[in-house]
Amino acid sequence: MSAAVESQPPHLPEVGDEVAHGGGVAIVTDIRQGTVYLRSYGLREWPVEDPTALKVTRTRAERGEADDL
Predict the structure, then answer these.
(1) pLDDT value at residue 45
(2) Where are the domains of the chain?
(3) Which in 9, 26, 49, 53 has the greatest CB count within 10 A?
(4) How far is the C-alpha of 28 from the C-alpha of 55, rounded, in Å?
(5) What is 41-66 written as a DSSP string?
(6) Pairwise CA distance, residues 55 & 1, whole Å
(7) Closest by CA position to 35, among listed 25, 22, 46
(8) CA 35, CA 47: separation in Å to the nearest integer?
(9) What tens digit of pLDDT does each residue of 9-54 get?
(10) Contact yes or no for 32/19 (Cβ under 8 A)
(11) Are 6 and 51 in contact, with CB atoms under 8 Å apart?
């Protein structure tokens, strides 16, 4: 027997969240007019074409608890 699985909309990252992106991690620095912007160590900020593809690895609150803001 198969159980019905409810499909939930993807959780979009928020400013300050750490996300997995392109084999590494980046921080969400801004959301402008619905466009998510990321920054990674040593790189400039860049817009993300598909924010639903990002996986939040740590929220801003979790980063704060780890003193990593």
Answers:
(1) 94
(2) 18-65
(3) 26
(4) 11
(5) TTS--EE-S-GGG-EEEE-HHHHHHT
(6) 31
(7) 46
(8) 7
(9) 567 899 999 999 878 899 999 999 989 999 998 899 999 999 889 9
(10) no
(11) no
